[in-house]
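Hey,

Quick one before I head out. I ran the complex with pyridoxal-5'-phosphate overnight. Inputs first:
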Amino acid sequence: MFDVYPLHDIEIVRAEGSRVWDSDGTEYLDMYGGHAVISIGHTHPHYVEMVTSQIKNIGFYSNSVIIGQQRELARKIGALSGKEDYQLFLCNSGAEANENALKLASFHNGKKKVIAFKGAFHGRTSLAVAATDNPNIVAPVNRTDNVIFLPLNDPETLEKAFAENEISSVIIEGIQGVGGIRLAEPEFLRQIRSLCDRYDAVYIADSVQCGCGRSGKYYSHDWAGVNADIYTMAKGIGNGFPIGAISIAPHIAPKYGMLGTTFGGNHLACAAAIAVADVIAQDRLIENAARMGEYLMDELRKIPVHIRDVRGRGLMIGVELDGDSAPVRKKLLFDEKIFVGSSSNKNVLRLLPALNITKAHADLFLNALNRILTAN
Ligand SMILES: Cc1ncc(COP(=O)(O)O)c(C=O)c1O
């Protein structure tokens, strides 16, 4: 293997709900969902049934024929998000979703400059990585002066950047994930909306990590009460099946050939994403994410030592410790058998459990973290 990932010496071979098992049969609690991917729980019966029965019929045909599942998925994402009039384009990953969104914005208004924010992560492909605030993953060939980085939640620099440049689009995570669970303030998102309207720019809501109901709304940006022009999605919408999507406001017109993909929107990927949408609606998982998120954050704030800040929305939670979180993560994983995540802020633990996590599982995690922090 091309050695780009620092690996835990654990091989996961089986999973169910919020639990996974390694090759020795050891059980772990999954409070991370493999970077926010597991939304309805591992191996959910409806998901397994939908994917299995789809592959028996047809797994793939190209985007040169009608694929009815795409239309069904568009209807279901429209209903869950309350944006029935938005148009759906399907692709394969979060980076590809953002790439397409940035391209579409530029096709739409003919402009070039993109505003992105300090701490942002938008993916590893050409323009998505150029809009990502991490020089270590931007290759010389990706560098471009078309991306302007601004501080998050700073209204003055945003206003000035619009006044001084021909802005095509603004791309922003509703809650920065990799950046350490930093919330875009609702007032700031409303300002982005109004500046995009004033200057004919496109507001792109990167919902790859914070979307799919995780925040207690289908799109976390919608806590601000204004619509984005394009929402980008991946991770949770496929519950592990690779699928990306962009949801596009009705005023942005399509043209043949403007976007495209071989694999995007294939029968099997759509079946997986439809199963996810079904379970989210039937089991009211957006409400559960809000409720369980509140419970977790309230209880985390009661832990008396070593926690400097608890922040987030729904089941996208950052726990900022008063020092490096790596030893705590290690104890959680190897002593307590619990997966949690890290972030670019080394003090922050990232929690991204499945949206149907139970109180019993939340308590298991809370007790373990309490034990580790109070023993230190
Ligand atoms: C906010 C955000 N955007 C985009 C991406 C890229 O998604 P993918 O890894 O599917 O390309 C990620 C991945 O972590 C992400 O967190």
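The first strand starts at residue 12 and ends at 16.

Talk tomorrow,
K.
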